[in-house]
Design a protein that fits this description.
Elements lengths: L12 H8 L8 H13 L6 H22 L9 H13 L12 H10 L2 H10 L21 H22 L8 H13 L3 H12 L4 H20 L11 H10 L4 H18 L2 H11 L8 H15 L9 H4 L11 E3 L8 H7 L4 H9 L4 E3 L13 H5 L13 H7 L6 H19 L6 H8 L10
Antiparallel strand pairs: 1-2
Helix pairs in contact: 2-3, 3-7, 4-7, 4-9, 7-9, 8-10, 9-11, 10-12, 13-21, 20-21
Length: 456
């Protein structure tokens, strides 16, 4: 069924379209921008063939944009988020300052966090006031629009959106295996607008594979370190967006970007003794509440996968990060349970104070990733039942590699929690090039100074 509207000659059909669609669910700014560009294409004093060519280019660009934005049905991208990222790369170096003393960092920040970029596109850049007519000749502060400027912009949208899609779906990208691995790691850590600007710029400029891999490796390390300590005294967070804008505009080279990332990474490691940071943060929040716990657990699982003979992935990231607290669905479990009911646990842990038992429960060595949803009743069972057997194939012995590793133990005691915690921190050191200090410093970082090691 169709609603038919008769538009009189004195009404602009494109303005009518925007007004009619400004009801109910609003159009995205990407949709509004397409309509605006087509509207502007009809206003140039050129041959009809040129107008038609421009209109086809705009339609093709937006067809490509929505094809890639919705290509992954399980994780569709946000069209306005793409528009924002593309905006900063295309216009970032040209944005007008709002005050004489405004630096580029504050300028980009203001356009992002006020969402002013949307109005800038529709009210300042792509507007009829910038058409080359006599009446508007002295009213526009920006250069006139032209057929070429609109065509170039549409082509940029078309070529950028596929690369943007690959950032969040690296498995589909025609890039090297190493690039896919590190892009996937960055996706797990979370690619925000700022980082997306830098990554898109990186894959748009000329650079070789090894150079891109170097940048991706550095970004992953910095991103992970920020998950441990978001604020570092005396060290400003690195401005990914500014690096991306400068790289895209040719104001910085890829080598200069690498040098800045190396310097920043080294300063992070130099300024912070991460074992001390972990000790302080776990004292107040515990490892269970650490923002990076799932990413860390997943990376440890991947290290066990590399050592396995089967090479079969038993822990899927997109399933691992889904949790439903209403239905008691968990993907990270406390081996020594939060709620102790069974005597088997009391026998091993009741000689510790309540505060110490709570520390043991939430220490990283007591946390394990789950490859499948475990019944809440199993969470409080004895370790022998949690391990699983031929009649209980929901146990650790039939789970992911981390679960299998734990299932090899005879029992689960405070000493096992300490030993596994030390092993995980040693993995952290090797994986991200950190130094967490001596064993006693690591034990302090685990919060388990009160646990006596076997034989001590």
């Amino acid at each position: 069924m169709f609603n038919i509207y008769t538009i009189t000659d004195d009404v602009d059909v494109f303005v009518a379209f925007e007004t009619m669609n400004n009801r109910g669910k609003p159009l995205s700014h990407l949709e509004l921008l397409k309509n605006r560009l087509i509207f502007l294409s009809t206003k140039f004093d050129v041959e009809q063939s040129e107008k038609t060519k421009l209109r086809c280019a705009i339609n093709e660009a937006w067809k490509s944009a929505y094809h890639f934005i919705g290509m992954n049905e399980n994780c569709a991208l946000d069209d306005d988020e793409f528009l924002k990222v593309h905006f900063f790369l295309y216009f970032g170096s040209q944005l007008p300052k709002r005050s004489s003393n405004q630096d580029i960092d504050r300028l980009l920040w203001s356009y992002e966090h006020e969402d002013y970029y949307k109005d800038y596109l529709l009210e300042d850049v792509f507007t009829s006031q910038r058409l080359p007519t006599v009446i508007n000749q002295f009213t526009s502060l920006l250069p006139f629009l032209s057929i070429k400027s609109l065509y170039d912009y549409a082509q940029s949208v078309k070529t950028s959106v596929e690369k943007y899609y690959r950032l969040f779906n690296p498995a589909d990208a025609s890039i090297s295996g190493e690039e896919k691995i590190y892009l996937e790691r960055l996706r797990r850590l979370g690619i925000d607008t700022d980082m997306a600007v830098l990554l898109l710029a990186l894959f748009q400029v000329k650079s070789d594979v090894s150079t891109r891999v170097n940048i991706l490796v550095l970004l992953e390390k910095i991103h992970f370190l920020y998950s441990i300590s978001p604020y570092i005294e005396g060290l400003d967070r690195i401005e990914y967006m500014k690096l991306g804008v400068d790289l895209s505009a040719g104001n910085q080279s890829v080598k200069q970007i690498i040098d800045k990332l190396i310097t920043h990474s080294n300063q992070m490691v130099k300024k912070i003794h991460f074992s001390t940071v972990l000790a302080i943060s776990t004292k107040y929040k515990s490892y269970y509440g650490w923002k990076g716990i799932k990413y860390f657990m997943f990376e440890y699982e991947q290290s066990l996968l590399e050592k396995s003979r089967t090479k079969r992935n038993k822990l899927i990231w997109d399933e691992f990060i889904k949790e439903d607290f209403e239905t008691d669905y968990r993907t990270v479990e406390h081996i020594y349970p939060q709620k102790v009911i069974s005597d088997c646990w009391k026998r091993l842990f009741n000689n510790y104070e309540v505060s110490q038992r709570n520390t043991l429960k939430n220490s990283i060595g007591n946390l394990i990733p789950l490859s499948i949803s475990k019944n809440s009743s199993l969470q409080n069972k004895c370790f022998t039942e949690k391990k699983g057997n031929s009649s209980n194939k929901a146990g650790y012995a039939y789970g992911c590699y981390s679960e299998i590793e734990v299932s090899q133990l005879e029992d689960w005691t405070p000493n096992e929690i300490l030993s596994r915690g030390l092993r995980l921190l040693e993995f952290m050191e090797q994986r991200w090039g950190l130094s967490l200090g001596t064993e006693s410093q690591k034990i302090k970082a685990l919060g388990l100074e009160f646990v006596k090691k076997d034989g001590a």
